[in-house]
Amino acid sequence: MNSLTLAERVAVTDKVDYLILKYLIEKREKFEYVPQSVLKENLSLTEREAQISLLRLIKNGAVTKKRIRGEDSFSITFTGLDIVATKSLYSKKVIKSLGITIGEGKESRVMFGYDHEDNTLAIKYHRIGRKSFKKRISNFPSKNWVSMTLENAKREYEALQCVKNNMGYVPTPITFTTNAVAMEYFEGTPLYRAELSDPEKVLDAILGTMRIAYVYCKGLTHGDLSQFNVLVSKDEDVRVIDWPQATRDEDVLIGDVTRILSFFEKEYSLERDLEEVLDYVKGYS
Predict the structure, then answer these.
(1) Model-wide pTM > 0.90
(2) Which of 134, 161, 184 is the last residue of a domain?
(3) Which residue range(s) make up the domain with 55?
(4) In this structure, are residues 104 and 63 in contact, taking their beta carbons and an 8 Å threshold?
(5) Pairing verdict, β 108-114 and 120-126
(6) How far, rounded to the nearest angstrom, does the alpha carbon of residue 255 sit from its chain's CA centroid?
(7) Hey, which of 54, 69, 97, 216 has its CA 20 to 30 A from 161?
């Protein structure tokens, strides 16, 4: 089943498969790998039901198997998380179908989604692996990779929601579930590839969004702001994207402001005083 799309993988996942995946997520802090006997007992499955479902989930790439203390045990994969999230988006009627992948990195995958009015959405699936964020693991209340992934999705959704509710230039968030955030699809070019006719307007929009995040969202800052996570439309409207590392940290705020000012100074000879900009972002001026 390696050649199947995510939508096809969701389609071949039945009710028992889904129950198993949900249980693996629920017990993520207790077990990295859940023994088959525990799955059978807690989900009231027969031996045959468990075997058929687990074999299908393995072929579907949704779980991995490891022999532990003489018993087959199972752990959910990123694909398994994606399946659970997508099924939830279907059941909540957020989307009626999935499209192609439009972006993929080490820690997320973004796909087109289509709602029941045929509007195009962006569905972002978070994927924080066991080695990701090694240097920032203290930011997470849990060191379990599944929990870190779920927390990342929640953090991004909450940041987007607060900033958008206060009129910041971010994609409109719709909902989050499991490791997925559904949001407005914004057609734009990454800032580092854009050729701006009015760079001052674009910089003001970015800094205004940072100010909203800090002043109205209790000291929030993006956490990884740069020319790589700002989109600019043909009309030079702006969306600041990728907020999973949003945090409340003064040093991180300074880094965010410094990077974006450095880009505009280098590319457009647009100079701003760092201290004055920080005062503006913090609402002091």
Answers:
(1) yes
(2) 184
(3) 6-76
(4) no
(5) antiparallel
(6) 22
(7) 97
